[in-house]
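The following record pairs a protein chain with its ligand, glutathione.
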Amino acid sequence: MTWTHPITAKWPARHPERLQLYSLPTPNGVKASIALEELALPYEPHLVSFDTNDQLSPEFLSLNPNNKIPAILDPNGPGGKPLALWESGAILVYLAEKTGRLLSSDPAQRYQTLQWLMWQMGGVGPMFGQLGFFHKFAGKDFEDKRPRDRYAAESKRLLTVLDKHLAGRDWIMGSDYSIADIAVFPWVRNLIGFYEAADLVGWGVYPEVARVLEAFAARPAVQRGLAIPPRA
Ligand SMILES: N[C@@H](CCC(=O)N[C@@H](CS)C(=O)NCC(=O)O)C(=O)O
């Protein structure tokens, strides 16, 4: 092994030459695994279990002080040196630039891909996530439904923006599948699947989003990435 990192005390690298992924198949976690599968990069996945609060362990915090998955450690980062990285949006940009795929090299296309990626990171993720809390998890028992309704309204607005944009396009960036799709569609899938919020957001009125979600879910790399790392 040519590198060391405190995280390996809890998650030893069996293939230290490969990119190390620390994750769980949640809507943020699968962005990294789907991208890695799509790019066919050799990598070693490690399960960060929330059941045992692994994300709060000193070993995990040594790599990501923000205690959230996904995180990666690339032994062969820029300049051939190891690179530790967290925040799924940054990880997607890094993987795309490392391979020269999933992010256009045309400057205008590139900025617009990043625009949709930021839209997911700053809008879709936080809003859908809060809606999940108030609709499906602990917040569902709160008597005051105003927080839930606020996040439902914002989620509907975001879905409407996406639906209009996708009309006449195969993917968010048109004919090119990109990291913007990998960021957005796991969250849409989760909203109407695991969060069971289809009725709440009026799922039937977003036919373009439904069409592209179906195409996304049919991709073999997506199907593989959704189950990585396997939950023990
Ligand atoms: N902005 C972060 C959010 C990551 C995030 O919220 N991850 C969740 C799972 S989807 C997590 O690790 N939660 C663990 C915790 O909060 O303790 C990213 O996109 O990477």
